């Protein structure tokens, strides 16, 4: 695994960049395409870790089907039915980029520096696991930020997908050798939840003509 340490760290750090793009791109179709790229990076990490745990090849295969194929297809399908432009977010470009950058820098540095507190094991302090855990926590909070701050309902689905990738990155990093890791990863895939959310969002769009989540209060009428 040592010869792949730099490759793994590079791929995981690239997931922070793709998370930025998914959140900040106002064109929802472009965000969906960038998510597809991030999903491919995630599947690549699963395949690399599978060198020492062949069971992870099953997770990589199922993740490719759900993350790279089905979910982007669902996103693009429902974006076509609604709108490809994100509803005006609560925070503009500059403010959003500054806020995300500040959170990511703090989380990454704190987690990377005090990894022994976050994951008290000698295994977690070695590379690329140390970097992966710092990245996974950063991505998790980027997804949470997207869910809480963005007004567009489809964009919040993107946030859920980013959050899921952060969780799965931490899972494969903390337990890459366990046989149960692949099973846990497969059963925690959010593809069904994403389909249900998009179906509901489409119904809201048909009623209100908008994907603005602030209009959900009107559903009580």
Give an overview of the whole structure.
This protein has one domain. The longest helix is centred in the N-terminal third of the chain and has 26 residues. Helix 7 packs antiparallel against helix 8. By secondary structure, the protein is mainly alpha-helical. The chain has ten helices and no strands. It starts with a helix and ends in a 13-residue tail after the last helix.
Distance, first to last CA: 58 Å
- Can you count the helices? 10
Average pLDDT, all residues: 87
Class from secondary-structure proportions:
mainly alpha
SSE arrangement, N to C: HHHHHHHHHH
Oligomer: single chain
Q: Give the overall silhouette.
A: globular
Share in helix? over 70%
Count of beta strands: 0
Short description:
This protein has 221 residues and is an all-alpha fold. The chain is 75% helix and 0% strand. It has one domain.
What topology emerges from the helices and strands here?
Layout: H1 5-24, H2 28-49, H3 56-81, H4 93-113, H5 115-118, H6 122-125, H7 129-149, H8 153-174, H9 180-187, H10 191-208
Helix pairs in contact: 1-2, 1-7, 1-8, 2-3, 2-8, 3-9, 3-10, 4-7, 7-8, 8-10
Features of the shown structure:
single chain; 221 residues; mainly alpha; globular
